[in-house]
């Protein structure tokens, strides 16, 4: 590691002025990066999929922890900057130029990979929802260790009755364990973003029987799409939903944010598959 140039030098040499549109806020503190890389456990011999390596700070920490890394990066300037890292860890790092939203990630990362990333804030939620709504469960990924704006991290782990409780909370918790593993001060980033950040750690658990993920997706979308409304209003266009509420003894005058995860599970199971 000693003969790798400091990240600041890489950034200067490759002219990596942060591009706001690409959500670029870089982490340069090696100790902090090593702590993030340690969150999923021992990475020796493990496969890791990283979205947005940027100048490669987190990538270095992952490689130093013994992982093999496949990283997808949209900014060509960073691709050139990552070349040195590829050479320093021969056969351990594959950098794929491209858009993480468009790539066949399961194919490039391989089954059983840990997903670890300091996500660009503008696509973080879309990627998370995609990873949480895999039809197959347990999914192809082994764990998620993801940096989000703290407000998003709070939504992921929120409990019923909390104002942050919403669609992300239910999707993250009905068949996964989700926890905030680390809070990160805005000053740790270059440039510092306006808000604080946090790393969320998510691992799949046993999925409840008989629940279709598409139904859970549509149910949570309908319920929290109108979170201030009573369920009888927000769920009225979801086939069979109001009848199932009645059968389960869930009061239709309740609001989405009061339902426990287990009530969403029971409701989705009772509704069954939804066409289209
Ligand atoms: N991992 C680096 C770090 O921790 O310092 C950089 C993190 S920065 C928050 C987000 C990175 O994602 C940037 O390098 C940016 O270029 C990249 N990025 C943005 N949109 C992307 C996309 N659609 N696909 C792949 N990478 C993307």
Keywords:
binds S-adenosylmethionine; Rossmann fold; two-stranded antiparallel sheet; single chain; 7-stranded mixed beta sheet; Helicase, Ruva Protein, domain 3
Walk me through the structure.
The chain has 276 residues and is of the alpha/beta class. It folds into two domains: 7-204, Rossmann fold (3-Layer(aba) Sandwich); 213-271, Helicase, Ruva Protein, domain 3, CATH 1.10.8.100. 36% of the residues lie in helices and 19% in strands. The radius of gyration is 20 Å and the shape is elongated. S-adenosylmethionine (SAM) binds next to strand 1, helix 3 and strand 3.
Helix/strand layout:
Layout lengths: L6 H7 L12 E2 L2 H9 L8 E5 L5 H8 L3 E6 L2 H6 L1 H6 L4 E5 L7 H5 L3 E6 L5 H9 L8 E9 H8 L9 H7 L2 E9 L4 E2 L6 E8 L8 H13 L5 H4 L6 H7 L13 H11 L5
Parallel strand pairs: 2-3, 2-5, 3-4, 5-6
Antiparallel strand pairs: 1-8, 6-9, 7-9
Question: Which CATH top level class of the largest domain fits?
Answer: Alpha Beta
Spatial strand order of the main sheet: 4-3-2-5-6-9-7
Outline the low-pLDDT stretches.
Answer: none
Please give the CATH architecture of the largest domain.
3-Layer(aba) Sandwich
Residue fraction in strands: 15-25%
Bound molecules: S-adenosylmethionine
CATH topology of the largest domain: Rossmann fold
Shape: elongated
The description of the largest β-sheet is: 7 strands, mixed
The topology string of helices and strands comes to HEHEHEHHEHEHEHHEEEHHHH
Average pLDDT, rounded to a whole number, is: 96
Q: CATH homologous superfamily name of the largest domain? A: Vaccinia Virus protein VP39
Instruction: Please give the radius of gyration in angstroms.
Output: 20 Å
Integer tally of domains:
2
**What portion of residues is helical?**
25-40%
By DSSP (H or I, 4+ residues per run), the number of helices equals 13
Structural class comes to alpha/beta
Strand elements, count: 9
Span of the ends, CA to CA:
52 Å
């Amino acid at each position: 590691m000693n003969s790798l140039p400091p990240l600041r030098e890489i950034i200067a040499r490759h002219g990596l002025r942060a591009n706001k549109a690409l959500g670029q806020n870089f982490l340069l503190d090696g100790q902090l990066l090593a702590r993030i890389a340690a969150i999923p456990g021992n990475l020796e011999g493990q496969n890791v999929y990283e979205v947005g390596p940027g100048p490669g700070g987190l990538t270095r920490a992952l490689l130093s922890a013994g992982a093999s890394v496949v990283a997808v990066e949209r900014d060509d300037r960073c691709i050139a900057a990552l070349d040195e890292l590829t050479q320093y860890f021969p056969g351990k790092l594959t950098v794929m130029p491209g858009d993480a939203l468009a790539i066949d990630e399961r194919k490039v990362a391989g089954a059983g990979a840990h997903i670890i990333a300091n996500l660009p804030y503008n696509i973080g939620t879309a990627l998370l929802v995609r990873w949480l709504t895999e039809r197959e469960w347990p999914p192809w990924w082994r764990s998620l260790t993801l940096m989000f704006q703290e407000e998003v991290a709070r939504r992921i782990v929120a409990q019923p009755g909390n104002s942050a409780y919403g669609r992300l909370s239910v999707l993250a918790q009905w068949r996964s364990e989700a926890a905030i593993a680390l809070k990160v001060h805005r000053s740790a980033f270059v440039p510092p973003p306006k808000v604080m950040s946090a790393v969320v750690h998510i691992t799949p658990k046993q999925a409840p029987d008989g629940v279709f993920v598409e139904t859970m997706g549509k149910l949570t979308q309908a319920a929290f799409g109108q979170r201030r409304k009573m369920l009888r209003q927000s769920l009225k266009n979801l086939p069979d939903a109001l009848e199932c509420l009645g059968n389960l003894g869930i009061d239709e005058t309740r609001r989405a944010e009061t339902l426990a995860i287990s009530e969403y599970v029971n409701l989705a199971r009772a509704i069954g598959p939804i066409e289209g």
